[in-house]
Amino acid sequence: MNVNGFQTQEEQSVPPFEEQPTNERQRHPIEDGWEVVTIDTPEGPKRVRRRRKSKPRKQSKPAVWKVVVGACILIGLFTLPLPIGQIQVTGTSQLTSEDVVHIGDLGYPVNILRVRTGALEERLQKDIRVDTAHVSYALPLTLQVDVKERKALVVVPSQFGFVSLDRQGMVIASSATIPDTTVPIISGVRLGNALLGDTIEAEGIRGAIAYMEAFTEDKRKQIGEINVGDADKMIAYTVEGLPIHIGDRNNLEEKAKITADMLVDIAQRHVSAEFIDVNIKSPFIKTQ
Question: What is the pTM of this model?
Answer without folding.
Answer: 0.69
